[in-house]
Specification:
By secondary structure, the chain is of the alpha+beta class. Helix content is 42%, strand content 25%. It has a six-stranded antiparallel sheet, sandwiched between helices. The two termini are 38 Å apart.
Length: 171
């Protein structure tokens, strides 16, 4: 798995808000402590970077390089499985993350999860419709295969699709 980090800063030196969506740019091996916490659905509330465990060496170096002093990441869960994380960070000064802020971020994550699930469902329906249309418009099965593979690959966001046929005569 991997992450995409989208950032927004209200002011140059206050808080950074980030969204990490699994399946994108940074390899999960780059930040193993964060990745393990996300997979386990853990909230990461760190008021002082010194609270981070020794296993979070890469994460701490990343945060220090950006002058992040405190951060809060909550998992975005769908049916109990992590699909993203939502976080806030304090730049230049340490901050305590109150329970109300954690709850607010978790609720925002719930809303985000529903939106992502809805988008995914719409993409799947679009792919199903396209596959049905390709089959209806094709005169032969062989003619439909390249179009089907293209439709499915575009629908699920992959670059390569394959169709294998069993040659019963060859054994």
């Amino acid at each position: 798995t991997s992450d995409t980090i989208f950032g927004y800063s209200r002011t140059l030196r206050s808080s950074v808000f980030s969204l990490c969506i699994t399946g994108r740019r940074t390899p999960s091996t780059t930040y193993p402590w964060w990745t393990a916490a996300l997979i386990q659905g853990q909230v990461l509330s760190v008021d002082h970077l010194s609270e981070m465990p020794p296993s979070a060496k890469a994460e701490r170096a990343f945060l220090e390089a950006m002058d992040i002093r405190s951060f809060l990441n909550v998992p975005v869960l769908a049916s109990g499985a992590p699909m993203a994380c939502l976080g806030v960070s304090s730049l230049g000064r340490e901050r305590h993350w109150e329970a109300q802020i954690i709850t607010l971020l978790e609720r925002a994550g719930d809303v985000l999860a529903q939106a992502l699930l809805r988008k995914r469902a719409q993409q799947h329906l679009g792919t199903q419709y396209t596959v049905a249309r390709v089959l209806a418009e094709s005169t032969t099965f062989g003619e439909s295969i390249p179009k089907l593979l293209q439709s499915v690959c575009q629908g699920v966001g992959t670059q390569l699709g394959e169709f294998w046929r069993v040659d019963r005569a060859a054994g």
